[in-house]
Amino acid sequence: MLLVEDIRSAPAPRMGNDEDRTDGRGDPAASVITKVKPKTKRPNLYRVLILNDDYTPMEFVVHVLEKFFQKDVEAATEIMLHVHHHGIGECGVFTYEIAETKVTQVMDFARKHQHPLQCVMEKK
Ligand code: TYC
Which segments constitute the Adaptor protein ClpS core domain (predicted)? Predict the structure, then answer.
């Protein structure tokens, strides 16, 4: 015959390993709440800028903006004129490696054509 005392004194049903909610420090009542942190990180972004000078032809700067920054002739002309009047202007915003590549491409292209055009990058 099964008595109610037998049930009361029986060990508590055991949890499976993956549902053990104790904190591992001896208090079976303490729960461990683990927060799962979403681990997507936004990349650092860098502006690529060109600088004005007195010698690089306007048409060459427009060509650079079309060739390396995928600008149409209207957008390229607007950026070139902004740089001509204000001394510096933004060609685009990129992750580090892409920005570094653009700067190198522009500097190599300017040197090859013997123009003093300067291109730099700056962390946003
Ligand atoms: N100032 C140059 C000129 O008058 C034109 C120019 C524009 C040069 C933009 C560089 O990044 C530049 N020929």
Answer: 41-119
